[in-house]
Amino acid sequence: MPYQNIDATLSAADIQAIEDDINAIKQKLPFLVTLTSDERKSLFKTGASRLSLIVDTAGIAQDFPNIFPPSFNITAFLRDVELFQKLNELKLKVDSLASQVDDTCLAVGSEAAKEALQVKDYAEAAVDTVPGLRPLVERIGQHFERSRTPAAAPEPKP
To answer: Buried b / exposed e across 101-135, counting CB within 10 Å, b at 16+?
Structure first.
């Protein structure tokens, strides 16, 4: 659907239902982990391009179990392959939803910012005639003040 002005609301009940659904999803995935930056760097990278490698080797493990030493747990490997495939499918859907939420947030935020500038202009025009408006206009004006610390001048190139 092409972007148009968004005019929508989310009720407190809808927000609660969405949060409950997110929590239900988390409960269905109790094995999720949070990796540190160092852990992420140290792991073998996988993704859609590696999926075919993983699936092909799973076929070998299923069809030729006798080539593996007893220390290699074929059943655990096949469970990992299946879970990886299922999580990849879910990840595509979650990523798509996250992208839509992000784009909508950007669009609505832009709309709200443009409208906020209009409110600022109307308030500034009415500041001398509406009692009590001046402190609010001054507070809004603080958002537009530039830092009084001058930026460091770039060093001359030799």
So the answer is: eeeeeeeeeeeeeeeeeeebeebeeeeeeeeeeee
The answer, as to whether pTM is greater than 0.85, is no
Q: Tokens 């537009």 appear where?
A: 144
Best CA proximity match to 26, nearest among 78, 99, 94: 94
Q: Which residues contact 43 (CB under 8 A, 6 or more apart)?
A: 35
Average pLDDT for runs of 10 along the chain of length 158:
84 97 97 95 84 94 97 97 93 96 95 94 95 94 76 66
For the chain, the structural domain boundaries read 46-144
CA distance linking residue 114 with residue 108, whole number of Å: 10
**Pairwise CA distance, residues 80 & 82, whole Å:** 5
Q: What is the pLDDT of residue 85?
A: 92
Helix (H) or strand (E) holding 96: helix 74-126
